[in-house]
Amino acid sequence: MKVFKFGGASVKNADAVKNVGKIISLFNDDLTVVISAMDKTTNALEKVVESYMNNDGKVVEHLQEVKDFHHNIMNQLFDNTNHPIYEDIHNTFVEIEWEIEESPERPYDYVYDQIVSIGEVISTKIVSAYLNSIGINNNWFDIRNVIRTDNTHRDARIDWDITEKLAQEQLLKKLNPNSKTIIITQGFIGSSSENFTTTLGREGSDFSAGILAYCLNAENVTIWKDVPGMLNADPKFFNDTKKLNNISYREAIELAYYGASVIHPKTIKPLQNKNIPLYVKSFVNPNEPGTLINENTAEDSLIPSYIFKKNLVLISISVRDYSFIMEDHLSHIFGLFSSFGVRIHLMQNSAISFSVCVDNNPQKLTNLMTALGEKYKVKYNENVELLTIRHYDEETIAKTTIGKEILLIQKSRNSVRMVMK
Ligand code: ASP
Ligand code: MG
Asked: Which pLDDT value is given to residue 237?
């Protein structure tokens, strides 16, 4: 069994869905295919939720946009408008209509999961029906019967034991020993023990692929993307990016931690635990090798990787009488960051000050600054950027800092991190 994952961009329109069919037909294996909502559907459904919860009178209009988008794709995939998929999709949208008929009194995150999850349900139904219509026989499967979570809506935690058991029981039994079996299922969604739909956090479909690969002891996982593999930098910021051919799980986790956004950070760990190789490949050039992530560390340091985070705030905290910053201060300061939910990207302390680089979330920061200001002297520098270079040398540092003021620099053996303006 191999696990494939196709994200929103790989099913963003009818041609993209057709391309998924081409890729799947290149393989002669049992496949579990995890698919996200089409294109920006998750954002569009988030708008539906917001309108409904705020009662702003636009909910029907927003829902109609989502319906039209999918109908347009279906019309291009199916010649026959009597194809049962039309009724199936209609009925699936009715589930949202039922949700929004009631007055918006239930908790936001709960409602969010019931509505937003429909994006994945619809996308997999369309892809599955299309593949069957062109002779790629497959089974549509509702992954909420397998991925069991707690009821932390929008950020649900996996119950691994139950999920593994259900995956073995329900998915493996679909395998036909005489022919290859293709299962088409949803990323991003699961269900709680009370049988309510949950979601795993934005961009969570990669993680779903990792979960299923782990539970099914898959031979390998392939994430199909619109890039040739994992690159050593974001092409938005760098023009001569290089592809990483093979990196270790450890390196992939480090890159994800520093903010490289190709793979959802939670995806790697379950694969590493069972030593399941992960490929990141191009859905445009599916025969190209892409990037292989496995236990091999030999190539980790061949190419420096650059990870940029922009629009951050550098906060510098000192004790009012300029005495030393001591452990009791640090413990109090960390407590404040944690209670205001401000995530620290980088920190450094000197004798009399403690500096941290954080996301620019004005609302959270204002509250945090006020609380810090009661006891400390606080200075901050807005609109700074944080550049992390893995496997750097002096030349890479020199090249990337031309014309910039370096406010703070941290070096370890493998990484350099610089806060710049
Ligand atoms: N559709 C979800 C999202 O856009 C999950 C995913 O794409 O991974 O966040
Ligand atoms: Mg996506």
From this structure: 85
Q: Please tell me the residue having the least CA distance from ligand 1 atom 8.
A: 203
Question: What parts of the chain have a pLDDT lower than 50?
Answer: none
pLDDT of residue 352: 87
Distance from chain centroid for Cα 69: 23
Point out the ligand nearest to the CA of residue 205.
1
Domains and CATH numbers, the chain: 2-219 (3.40.1160.10), 305-420 (3.30.2130.10)
Backbone angles phi, psi at 117, to 5 degrees: -60, -25
Q: Using the mean position of ligand 1's atoms as its centre, give its distance from the Cα of residue 156 in Å.
A: 14
DSSP-based three-state secondary structure for 21: helix
CB of 208 within 6 A of ligand 1: the answer is no
Pocket of ligand 1 contains residue 210 by CB under 6 Å = no
Identify the burial level of 282 via C-beta atoms within 10 angstroms of its C-beta, where 0-12 means exposed, 13-18 middle and 19 or more buried: buried
- Residue 191: CB atoms within 10 Å: 21
Residues 117 and 2: beta-carbon distance below 8 Å: no
Quote the pLDDT of residue 63. Answer: 98
The answer for residues whose C-beta is within 8 angstroms of residue 209's C-beta and 6 or more apart is: 3, 4, 5, 34, 187, 221, 223, 267
